[in-house]
Specification:
- Helices cover 27% and strands 37% of the residues.
- The chain is α+β, with helices and mostly antiparallel strands.
- A seven-stranded mixed β-sheet has the order 6-5-8-3-2-1-9. Strands 4-7 form a two-stranded antiparallel ribbon.
- A hairpin with a 5-residue loop joins strand 5 and strand 6.
- The N and C termini lie far apart (66 Å).
Length: 161
Amino acid sequence: MKKHNKVTIKKIILLIIIAIIPITTTKKNAHAQSNGKTKSEITIKGHRVFVEIADSEEKRKRGLMWRKSLDKNSGMLFIYKDSRIRYFWMKNTYISLDIAFIDTNLVIKTIHTIEKTDDSTTLYSSYVPVQYVLEVNSGWLEQHNIHTGDTVTFDFNLSTP
């Protein structure tokens, strides 16, 4: 009888483990999808940045609004269908940011370092036509010696919206 009980207990433990694994995996996947924070990578001068992609009108409008922080080597990459002069503002944005405006050849054309947060009056311009805009924590570009004229590499297949 004791041997039978040991086998039954082992079976119960195994069934519990098997039942728990899919639940935790499903919760993790649902959380990542519901937050829309699937990350891709870009590289600038050998430095990797893990970016959230804003490639729809809805995602671009929301941007980093309402966020209180941004991970160290993370950011948001705004992808547009076309190249034109772009303007950004800091309305409802509570993180100080660097903004790099990037042309169709993936060259950084303009950089703004913005310390003022939640500002709906100041517009930051690309000054020249660009197709991509990168936002990272304020000071990140300077810390990594990244300037206008540097080239960005997308470590993913690019398909414009």
